[in-house]
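Lab notebook, bench 4. The sequencing result for the construct came back, and we need a structural model before the next group meeting so we can plan mutations. Quick request posted to the team channel:

Model the 3D structure of this chain.
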Amino acid sequence: MAYIDGKEEYYSFNSRMEEKKPPPPKQVPRPAPVASSSNSNVKKQPQAQNKGKGKAPAPKPYSQGYRIPKIQQDAMENAFQMARTIMELQNKEEARIRFEK
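Done. Here's the predicted structure in token form:
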């Protein structure tokens, strides 16, 4: 996450998906609690619902435009660059071995 002028800055693999916002979560009514037969003399309190507070939507996978922090994106790019370098070195080593034969 990069902070620029006090704001969090996010980057996305899929900029077209950034403009679309997920639909607000649906609130599901809960059934009233039922007293069990073993504790019939204990009166149960109904639980208050958190009105206006829906569950946060589950994060989407990276391929579907899930926004990742800039630092994480930089770390992933560094890892891919290291993998590319290792592959190039392996190819050069294999070519050198073939040439020596």
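Strands lie at 2-4, 7-11, 68-69.
Will bring this to the meeting.
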